[in-house]
Specification:
With about 350 residues, this protein is an alpha+beta fold. Helix content is about 35%, strand content about 25%. The protein has helices at about 30-35, 85-95, 115-130, 150-155, 195-205, 225-235, 240-255, 270-275, 295-315, 320-330, 335-345, and strands at about 5-10, 15-25, 45, 55-60, 65-70, 75-80, 100, 105-110, 130-140, 160, 165-170, 180-185, 190-195, 215-225, 255. Strands 1, 2, 3, 4, 5, 6, 9, 11, 12, 13 and 14 form an 11-stranded antiparallel sheet that branches. A two-stranded antiparallel ribbon has the order 7-8. A two-stranded antiparallel sheet has the order 10-15.
């Protein structure tokens, strides 16, 4: 069965999922996390310490898979899988979920013949927790399209259109060279990095006294976190394949253009760029901002306002200022905020009122 985590385009580019992270929130048990992936507990080895607020960590003995657990209450169990281990994970999940059929054979149960192992695994993540990070990689092996120096010249000449506000690059010199171009920041929910994969691989190979790669290799990598990763997971669950997702998201956030108009928004898209994205259209990951709940308001007040308010009350030795704030704030409520209050109280529009005196 198709694992669904990688694909080859007709233009020679190779696409893949290069990182996958999720948190199980329905359990605090590390055994549940291992069972969900289809591994055995003996496949993992305990580490000296945990990461990111978890006190304990397990790592797979052969693959780059780590499990963080024993965190604070409601932190659940967190799993990180690097790109080199994604195929092994999906293969293990597939084999662990084979069932006997009425025809005397075994099969992988799905709700559609067009489904993939990745899609079925995403269903498990959604049922028991949520995804936190997903990286999509585009490998240009042999550099058939853009080299890093060429991209530097294009971006410096402003021959691009992007949803990212800015770009930067990092160059490494010496025994182990390197060159990376970044769009976006590590703290944002989406970041694009384009780097010299040959240099990165040769650094590892030479350190291990192995022969270096002779061919050039440029990787484009979209790092998606939080709500962006969630949106990608939803699209995978809808049956959107990795080719359409990866190139669609990339061209939605970046396009290389020709210098053929005084106005940048009227410049035509470069023919090389059209060939690079292989005719795939844009995929939007727009996420509307969810309406703040009363609990959200309470958390914000506790975190941001409580210390200052306590200082004022203690200085005044009374709660008069709090009463003033409530009266003042009520008179400034917007119609939308009043609607929310009415809905919470089971009333109708304009029913909410405050009696003074």
């Amino acid at each position: 069965m198709n694992t669904g985590h990688c694909a080859d385009l007709t233009n020679g580019l190779h696409l893949s999922i290069d990182w996958l992270s999720w948190t199980l929130t329905t359990t605090q048990s590390v055994d549940d996390a291992i069972l969900m992936m289809g591994f055995d507990v003996n496949d993992f080895k305990a580490q000296p310490q945990g990461l990111n607020g978890y006190s304990s960590q397990l790592r797979h003995v052969s693959h780059s898979i780590s499990i963080q657990y024993n965190g604070n209450e409601n932190m659940g169990v967190h799993v990180d899988v690097s790109g080199s281990a994604v195929h092994a994970l999906l293969t293990q999940f597939y084999e662990a979920n084979l069932v006997n059929t009425v025809f005397g054979s075994v099969g992988f149960e799905t709700d559609s013949f067009e489904s993939t192992v990745l899609r079925e695994f995403m269903k498990c993540i959604k049922e028991y927790g949520h995804i936190t990070r997903l990286d999509l990689a585009v490998d240009d092996i042999g550099t058939n399209y853009y080299s890093l120096p060429e991209l530097h010249d294009l971006f410096t000449a402003d021959l691009y259109v992007s949803r990212f506000r800015s770009w930067k690059e990092v160059r490494e010199y010496g025994k182990y060279s390197g060159h990376t171009i970044y769009f976006g920041s590590r703290t944002s929910s989406i970041m694009l990095r384009i780097y010299d994969k040959q240099a990165e691989q040769n650094k590892k190979l030479l350190s291990a006294d192995m022969s270096p790669l002779e061919y050039t290799w440029v990787r484009w990598e979209l790092e998606l976190k939080r709500e962006r990763a969630q949106q990608v997971m939803e699209l995978i669950l809808q049956g959107i394949n990795i080719s359409f997702l990866t190139m669609g998201i990339l061209t939605n956030y970046l396009r290389i253009i020709n210098n053929d108009s005084p106005r940048k928004d009227r410049c035509t898209v470069s023919e090389k760029w059209n060939a690079f994205i292989d005719g795939i259209g844009k995929v939007s990951l727009y996420c509307s901002e969810p309406e703040k709940t009363i609990d959200d308001n309470k958390r914000w007040l506790t975190r941001q306002v409580a210390p200052t308010l306590a200082k004022v009350v203690m200085a005044d030795a009374s709660f008069d200022f709090i009463e003033f704030l409530i009266d003042n704030g009520f008179n400034r409520l917007t119609p939308n905020q009043l609607e929310i209050l009415n809905a919470l109280q089971g009333g109708t529009k304009h029913d909410t009122a405050r009696s003074n005196g």
